Amino acid sequence: MGLTTMGCAIKKEKKEQPKYQANWESLSEYEAAADWFKDAKFGIYAHWGVMSVPAYANDWYARNMHIEGTDEYKHHVETYGEPSAFGYHDFVPMFKAEKFDADAWADLFEKSGAKFAGLVAEHHDGWSNWGSKINPWNAVNMGPKRDVYGELSKAIHKKNMKLVASFHIARNLQLYKDEPENWLKSISYFPYNPNMPTSSEDPLLAKMYGNIPKETFYKDWLGQLKEVIDNYSPDLIYFDSQTQKIPENYKNEFAAYYFNDAVAKNKQVVFTHKEGEFPKTVSLEDFEKGRMNKITKDFWLTDETVSVGSWSYTNTLGLKKADEIIHILADIVSKNGALMLNVSPMADGTIPQNQQDVLLEIGAWLKINGEAIYGSRTWDVFGEGPTKQEKSGMFLDKITYTPHDIRYTRKKNTIYAIVLGWPGNNMPITLTSFTTKILGDNIPNIKRVSILGHKGEVPFLLDTNGVHFKTPEQKIDDKAFVVKIETK
C-alpha cells in the first residue's frame, strides 16, 4: 500500500505578525489620544528619587554641583566636600524612602481629583525607581531596597486610576567627552570633567553619569522602557526633552512594542513628546509649564508643578495656590488639553502637608465642579475676558486671571462657563460669547441656567449682548465657580 498525504497533511504554524510595525506609517494607525485620556483631564505625578536628598536649589542640583563657581557647587563643597570626593552617587545610600506609603499617596491623589497618577520612573540622573535588570542604580538594589514604582503602581491600579511613568533619561547621555569647550552644554545632564566622577570609566559610575558608548545607551534606553511596560503596564508614558538624541529606529521600536503590548492587554495607552521629538501621528504634544492659546483639533498635555522653583523637593520650596492651579486647569481643558500636576515628596517618602493641602483644595473644588471638567469637550470658543495669553508654547510667564475671565467647556447640549474668581455677591455677569458677533446664527436655545454647588435655578436673560444673570447672595467659591447652561 502506497503512502498518501490524505488526512495526515502537516501544516506549518504561521506565526502571527504584531499589529503594529516599527515604522511611523504603521504606528500612525494607532489612536494617539486614548478615550480615557480625552475624559480624564487631570492627573498627578511626583519628581522623587535620589534627586530629593540634597533638598537644595532645584532638580538640577545633580548637574550644577559638578560645575565650579555655581551656587550648588559652593553649597556642596561646604556641606559634603569636593564633588571629586563626594559625588552625586554618594547620595544614593541617603535615599531611604523609609516613610513611603504607596497606598497613602494613591489615596491622596484620588482625593485630589486625579484620574491618572504615577511617578518619575527615571530622571536625568540615571536613577531607576524600579528593580531594573539593566540599570544597577535602582531602588531595589540600592537606596530604599524597595520597588517603589511597583508599590505605587499597585496602589494606583487599586484605585482604578490610570498609571503614569515618566522618563527623562535621554538627557543623561554624555556627548562631549572629547570637546572641552562643550562640556557644559545642557543637552547632556552631567557635564564631563576629568576632575569629577562624571568622567569616571568605572563601569558602575559611568552608567549613572551617562559616560558610556552611545549604542549601549540607546539599547539600555529601549530595554528599560520595555521593563517598565512588561512589569507595570503604564497607561501613559511621558518623555521629557532631548529624545531627539535617540535614533529613530529605537523610537520606532519602542512605540511598536508599547502599542502591541496594549493591544495584547486590550487597553489604550498614550505617550507624549515635546517640540516634535516624536510625530504627532503617534503621540501627544506636551507643554512643560505652558499651553496653547487657542482651541486645537489635537489633544495635548501640560505638565506643571505645585511648587515654585523646583520640580523636586527642596528645604525652601515655594508653592502655588490652589486657585492658580484650578485656573490653569480650566484654561487648558477649554482648549482641548489635560493637566498633569507634579508634587515634590521629601527623600523619606513624605509628601509635605502644605503640598497635600493644596491638592486637597483642588480635589474639593473638583468634587463640586468636576462635571465641567471630566468627560467634557471644547465649545465653539474657549473663553472670554480681559486677560490674554499672547502665545502658545512651553515655559510661559505666569498669567493671573480675574473674575472677569471665563472659560467654556461642554457636554452634548450642556455648556459650562467657568468663572475664574468670585466677583462678589449678587453681582451682575454677562456672558458675551452668546452673541451673533461670536457665534453667528448658532446661538443656542437656553432652557435652564444653574450654578454648580448652589441649589435652584438662576434667573437669566438672553439678548443681543449675551446671557445676563446675577451671582447668588452668598459666595459660592473664591477660586472659581461654574455656571451650567442647559440648551434645547
How does this model look, in words?
Helices cover 25% and strands 18% of the residues. It has twelve helices and 18 strands. It folds into two domains: 24-53 and 95-173 and 212-372, TIM Barrel (Alpha-Beta Barrel), CATH 3.20.20.80; 383-487, Immunoglobulin-like. Residues 1-12 have low confidence and may be disordered. Helix 5 (102-111) packs across helix 6, helix 5 (102-111) packs across helix 11 (353-369) and helix 10 (322-334) packs across helix 11 (353-369). It has an eight-stranded parallel barrel with strand order 1-2-3-4-5-6-7-10. With 488 residues, it is of the alpha/beta class. A hairpin with a 2-residue loop joins strand 16 (461-463) and strand 17 (466-470). The chain has helices spanning 24-27, 35-40, 61-64, 71-79, 102-111, 148-158, 203-209, 214-232, 248-264, 322-334, 353-369, 436-439, and strands at residues 42-46, 116-122, 162-167, 236-239, 270-273, 284-288, 300-305, 307-308, 318-319, 337-343, 383-384, 406-411, 414-419, 428-431, 446-451, 461-463, 466-470, 481-487.
What top-tier CATH class of the largest domain fits best? Alpha Beta
Characterize the largest beta sheet: strand count, sense, and whether it forms a barrel.
Answer: 8 strands, parallel, barrel
Total beta strands: 18
The average pLDDT value, as a whole number, equals 96
Helical segment count: 12
CATH topology name of the largest domain, in short, is TIM Barrel
Shape: globular
Question: Judging by the overall fold, what is the CATH architecture of the largest domain?
Answer: Alpha-Beta Barrel
How many structural domains does the protein architecture include?
Answer: 2
Structural class: alpha/beta
Rg to the nearest angstrom?
A: 26 Å
Helix content: 10-25%
Strand order of the largest sheet: 1-2-3-4-5-6-7-10
- Order of H and E elements: HHEHHHEHEHHEHEEEEEHEHEEEEHEEEE
Strand content: 15-25%
State the CATH superfamily name of the largest domain. Answer: Glycosidases
Uncertain segments: 1-12
Distance between the termini: 83 Å
